[in-house]
Amino acid sequence: MRRRQVLALGAGLVPLVAGCGSGRGPRERALASSTVSVIVPGPQGCGADRVARSLRGLAERASLVRGVQVVNRPGPTALAEFAETRTGARRLLMAELGTVGMVRPDRQAAAFAGTTPLARLCGEWELIAVPAASAFGSFGAFADAMRRDPAAVAVAGRAEGGVDHVMFGMLAQSLGVDPRLPHYVACRSGDDAAGAAAGGLAAAVVGSPAGLGERLRAGELRVLAVSAPDRVPGLDAPTLLECDTHLYCADWRALLGPGDLPDDDRDALVGMCRSVTETASWREHCRRNGWAPLYLDGDDFGRWLGVESARLSKAFGDLGLRA
Question: Considering its fold, how many domains does the chain have in total?
Fold first, then answer.
């Protein structure tokens, strides 16, 4: 099989973790006495919200900041509010993969232009699963069916234009299939999507380990492949790379500052992110929530974010989606 490369995380897969040191400079001390607002483009309880609230609890507990106010807004509203942010407001944005889809199509490739990238905190890998009794015994069998007659393959996932849909579109493209041909069954939640597959309404389901976990544990579904670059501990499934499909895709969450953020303030906020993500408590939060620790900051994160935005813009266009 000819390997097709569709890379979603790029060179930023390797976490960059740097020590912060015990001393605090003037900006760090100023941050420790300040309250920071984090705008979340989604409702309370969504993935980005859980990451923001975990960051808040750990940063406050370590006295890295006096307080973090998590502000939930509908996606487009959140982006509009953040675009109006000015230095001194200490208002940040918790961005994620789906945030790119909330931007006008002609601006998606540079979705985060005018912001200050701070840090990519974590992400969730995607699973491709089928009902336990499915005739697809391997990812290869599923891929062959997609190539033969993509319109006959129904795949369930969460909302149209969300991470599951985008992941499936990139997967189809990596197999040489027009992403608009397979039938995508959009569901309200990962569990609903898993139920659609288990109930015979879809041949397969794309979703996060957390969303599919209950039905996987019950034996209703089995995993064909995972979108991580390496095997996921505790999950008996090959990576897409092992299946000759070079696709990495995570539902990442990252913290951004306003575009006119002074360098010293940026460094202090990056230091806060580093300090939080280096703790055992953060690692426990990641383990409990099924998050992969994909920490990245500095110029490397800024470059990665630009490449990722362009890739996602192309994926949305290939699916025929519009903001």
Answer: 2
Residue 64 has what DSSP assignment?
A: S
How far is residue 250 from each of residues 96, 120, 177, measured CA to CA in Å? 10, 12, 21
Is the same domain home to 134 and 243? yes
Residue 84 per-residue DSSP state:
T
Q: How far is CA 108 from the centre of its chain?
A: 16
How many residues does this entry show for the chain? 323
DSSP-derived 3-state class of residue 159: coil
For the domain that residue 116 is a member of, what is the CATH number?
Answer: 3.40.190.150
Separation CA 299–CA 297 (nearest Å): 7
- Encoded tokens for 322: 């519009």
Position 7 scores a pLDDT of 40
Write b or e for each residue in 146-181: b if 16 or more Cβ atoms lie within 10 A of its Cβ, otherwise e: beeebeebbbbbbeebbbbbbbbbbbbbbbebebee
Distance in angstroms (rounded) separating the CA atoms of residues 163 and 84: 27
DSSP code of residue 231: P
Between the alpha carbon of residue 36 and those of residues 177, 189, 259, 296, the distances in Å are 45, 31, 16, 21
Q: Are residues 202 and 313 in the same domain?
A: no
- Say how far residue 237 (Cα) sits from the centre of its chain: 20
Amino acid 57 reads: G
Residues 204, 272: one domain? no
What is the rounded distance in angstroms from the CA atom of residue 206 to the CA atom of residue 61? 36
Q: In terms of residue numbers, what domain contains 116?
A: 14-123+252-318
Roughly how many angstroms between the first and final C-alpha of the chain, as a whole number? 35
Same domain for 289 and 180: no
Q: Give pLDDT tens digits for 33-88.
A: 789 999 999 999 999 999 999 999 999 999 999 999 999 998 877 877 787 766 55
Residues 6+ apart with CB under 8 A from 152: 145
Q: What is the pTM of this model?
A: 0.87
